[in-house]
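QA checklist item 7 of 12: single-chain prediction sanity check.
[x] sequence parsed
[x] length recorded as 234
[x] structure emitted
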Amino acid sequence: MRPDDADAYRETLALIGPDADHRDIERALLAAGWTPCGAGDWAIALRSPDGTAAARISPFDPTGPYTAALYREAAHTWQVPLLFAHRRLTGGGDFQLMEWLNPVPAAEATAFHQAITTRAPHVAELVDVVRRIHDQALRELPWCGPLDTNPSNVMRTTDGRLVAADLFYADGPNLYATAANNPDLVAAKIPESERRFIAEIPLAASGPWPPGAQDSLRAGLAAADARAQHARVN
């Protein structure tokens, strides 16, 4: 299947309204027979009824468009997942519809990451695209993190290809600490429309959220937005 061939998922994509947020998409896909198959710090994943595709749904992911760009622009290498569709969601969320991937042994994943780090010949074209898009993300995004070398980000497709997924990520610990301690800075750097659901990421890997932390984060940012609005009109 070609990276831009979303025909098989036309009905799925039709479920996603133009103003959909992460909750709307999760609810629609579950009703259509998709099933939960994983969760991380930033997103949950659902598997298609026929098992051939996965949906990655994030409430808040500034790096989502850069990951989608990587999948599209490095598609010719066959070393990234096939991306069938990508949508930005209301409130700063991100939706990616891609081919189903399976985990690989940690040693194999680590070796693939090492090849990327050293720009080994068999991944040189991939690395060139990764570096170019990551450099763009570093220029454009506040709190953009380094390349993610987590072994779980290297996976295998059903046809046997080894691929790199989710190489880009926001510097979550720094971003969320700043949001808690200096919400005015986060409010100034990230528009409310792009962080409305910043307190709803799953934190399935490093969490859970401490009691009250989500409400406190929302309140702090809402107060910062109010201060900024007051300053603009005075």
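[x] summary fact logged: The longest helix spans residues 213-233.
[ ] second reviewer sign-off
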